């Protein structure tokens, strides 16, 4: 069960995922290093979310191996022990908060599930701490998700993802639907949390600004596998039509120019 590569937070080898006759991944390999923010990009339908769900153990693959924090994620021991679940926080697309619970109650859900013996006032205090860490005002805790703006709902989702003090954070298109200023602020939050807490972050995004602002490396999904996983400068030079369109099309050029101006 102990990994031969302790600097890797996630190690995927030979992954195959399919739905009926549709093969989404074939022989896919990916490494995520401890303490990095890895941006995961690719065209729509290339299987970014399916990959995240496989790593999280939500949908077993047809073939391949997945190690998370040195543990074989596909083994029954990993599933039974809840070890990976306790060490991972997830922000799904749209936030996936319970609409009938307040923000504080939402953040308390994983705490109550994993630590049922914790006294209620301690659960509440911990939930409020995570809410503040996510950059929300104190009074957001008592509100329902429907009473928050889209950006605040995403912060509430981050607060819940941090509830169990995870080592790994999974974010599925965290800035989708945010205005550029809100998106930049959210990028800043992810980066500062990653630094302060030493998190490893697996970040699915279509947002070029996010890639340039906070990602240490970028993995590109295409042709059913990870084409390249490397620092941006290297990925930009990768010879593949999708990569060239994405990074050197009008939006890619704009994101690069914005970065150059800030530097
Ligand atoms: N439960 C499912 N049943 C059948 N097909 C599915 C299922 N989940 C995903 N797929 C298919 O797998 C492929 C990859 O889906 P996925 O959601 O991972 O793409 P994605 O890269 O995250 O796309 P997007 O950028 O649009 O969110 C798609 O063709 C999708 O239709």
From TrEMBL:
Entry's Gene Ontology molecular function annotations: ATP binding; ATP hydrolysis activity
Question: Key word Cell wall biogenesis/degradation present in the record?
Answer: no
Query: In this protein, which residues make up the domain named ABC transporter?
Result: 10-248
Keyword check for Protein transport: no
Q: Which InterPro entries does its entry note?
A: AAA+_ATPase, ABC_transporter-like_ATP-bd, ABC_transporter-like_CS, P-loop_NTPase
**Which UniProt keywords are listed?**
ATP-binding, Nucleotide-binding, Transport
Species the sequence originates in: Arenimonas fontis
Superkingdom: Bacteria
- UniProt name for this protein: ABC transporter ATP-binding protein
Query: Sorted alphabetically, which SMART domains does this protein's record hold?
Result: AAA
Organism classification: Bacteria, Pseudomonadati, Pseudomonadota, Gammaproteobacteria, Lysobacterales
């Amino acid at each position: 069960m102990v990994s031969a590569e302790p600097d890797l937070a996630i190690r995927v080898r030979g992954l195959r995922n399919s739905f009926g006759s549709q093969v989404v991944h074939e022989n896919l390999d990916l490494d995520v290093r401890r303490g990095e923010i890895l941006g995961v990009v690719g065209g729509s339908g290339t299987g970014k979310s399916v990959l995240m769900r496989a790593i999280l153990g939500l949908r077993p693959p047809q073939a391949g191996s997945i190690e998370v924090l040195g543990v074989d994620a596909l083994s029954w021991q990993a599933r039974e022990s809840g070890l990976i679940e306790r060490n991972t926080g997830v922000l799904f697309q749209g936030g996936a908060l319970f609409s009938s619970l307040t923000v504080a109650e939402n953040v308390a859900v994983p705490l109550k599930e994993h630590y049922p013996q914790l006294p209620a006032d301690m659960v509440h205090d911990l939930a409020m701490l995570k809410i503040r860490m996510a950059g929300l005002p104190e009074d957001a805790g008592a509100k329902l998700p429907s009473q928050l703006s889209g950006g605040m709902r995403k912060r509430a989702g981050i607060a819940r993802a941090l509830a169990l003090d995870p080592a790994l954070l999974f974010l599925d298109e965290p800035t989708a639907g945010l205005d550029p200023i809100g998106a930049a602020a959210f990028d800043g939050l992810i980066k500062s949390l990653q630094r302060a807490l030493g998190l490893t972050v697996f970040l699915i995004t279509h947002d070029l600004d996010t890639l340039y602002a906070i990602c240490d490396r970028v993995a590109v999904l295409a042709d059913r596998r990870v084409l390249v996983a490397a620092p941006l400068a290297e990925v930009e030079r990768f010879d593949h039509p999708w990569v060239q369109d994405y990074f050197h099309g009008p939006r890619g050029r704009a994101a690069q120019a914005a970065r150059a101006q800030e530097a």
